[in-house]
Amino acid sequence: MTQYYTWHHLLCTNLFLPCTVPDFAKIKAWPSCEINGMILVWYHCDGIDPVWAVPEQEEITSKEWVYRGHTEHFVNAHIQEIPENAADFAHLTFLHEPVFMSGVDLRYTHSKLWESVKHCWKGEWQPEPEPNKHCSQLVVKHSLTVFGKHFSLMDFAVRARQVGPGLVYLTFEHAFLGRGIILQSVTPVEPLLQHVVHRIYYQRSMPAVIPKFILKVECIQFERDIMIWNNKQYLSKPLLVKEDSAILRHRRWFAQFYSENSTRFTFQKGGLDW
Ligand SMILES: [Fe+2]
Fold first, then answer.
1. Cα–ligand 1 centroid distance for 49 (angstroms)
2. What would the CATH number be for the domain defined by 58-257?
3. For the chain, domain boundaries
4. Which intervals hold domain 3-ketosteroid-9-alpha-monooxygenase oxygenase component-like C-terminal (predicted)?
5. Taking ligand 1, which is a single-atom ion, which protein residues have CB atoms under 5 Å away?
6. Cα of 178 to ligand 1 centre, how many Å?
7. pLDDT confidence of 97, banded at 50, 70, 90?
């Protein structure tokens, strides 16, 4: 697996040694970079140096967009499951159509109380060509309907750019609410346990309540996915219809992040045919 990890999960050892350093007192140097308010460490199971760089979001560096908060989640799933969500369009309607007020528990999100307000998502997922073949993009158009009528004030575009297996740049653009970004980082902390952090940066000129609200809504939608990830089973050959073809394309795209020596989990195999 090749991956940039966010720094806060790693043990940082600062050695200030006054004189002769014995041979055994050495630590491995990890390729790292500081960018977009994060310190990232490169990991490759074969010890190969970074083969791509993390793109800079200029508005963060120039402080045109400022930090407005973050969320943290733990997900019981393989790292591949989280980005695969972007290619699974069918789930958008079932999971993310109910308005955010109906909460995160999928047993109750399709309640009568909120059925008059619905999110509508239209998305397309594509891998990027060389030299950015480690990136892919999901472009989503969001709209809101109230009693079946289009409420155009809530129209906005979201672009989710996946950079490698564990980073997503989620950029928003809205006619009145301005522009900003949510940076998602996914860090494996145990086999099948992921630490997911979302950090939001937003136009300095906009009141902080706007990005805080956006982060809250995003967090509600993300927690609906977590309920699935925590309970789903990975099938290497799932039964897919034509409309699901992006899932197989995504799996082919994600395969580039494995090498022969990547850890393989065999204990997750099994079926529901018991
Ligand atoms: Fe989702």
1. 32
2. 3.90.380.10
3. 58-257
4. 41-258
5. 85, 225
6. 23
7. confident
